[in-house]
Write the structure tokens for this entry.
Amino acid sequence: MALTEELIDRLAIRDLLENWTVWRDAADWERLSTVWHEGGRMITTWFQGTGDEFIKVSRERFNGGVRILHFLGGSSIDIAGDRAIAQTRMRISQRAKVESVVCDVVCTGRFYDFLEKRAERWGFVLRQPIYEKDRIDPVDPTATLKLDWTRLMSFPEGYRHLAYLQAGIGYSVKADMPGLTGPEVDALYIKGAHWLKGESIEVIDAETPRLAA
């Protein structure tokens, strides 16, 4: 069966999504630097900036012992010419001490990616996770974990345990990340629709300031 141009694009995008995950978690920083287009951005609970800045900070924290791992599921990819929006099921896991107890936090959600094909190469223009639900578990099942309930509930529902862990180890956590429902994710969907229609990220960000980095 002959491969159509659209199918080739879809395969290239999926390859890009998987490469980001493997190279990021394997600390393959040199190859990870190839997945973004120039000026491409990354927005997470703990970081908002360019792809190059994300790699720099991720490398520093990886060398300092921070371990954040990612697992991918299925993808839905919408292509409009040389632009695309990809939504990919994912899980983020992070291990660290929480209230003096070593814990794993697992957060389930989606990567919502703004992609563009430039000079015959697909790359990220903006990577924005959607955080749907999370949980926290002591690594030692016999350990007793007591969380500050007021502080836990101060974080958004979709990533409150992840935020609790990250804030506890010194991260500055972004408080308005999109979740399963709500104005933040609604604005993100609108932003994606405008991207597919050909608008620039700068114009879209001006119209949806809640999601600007």
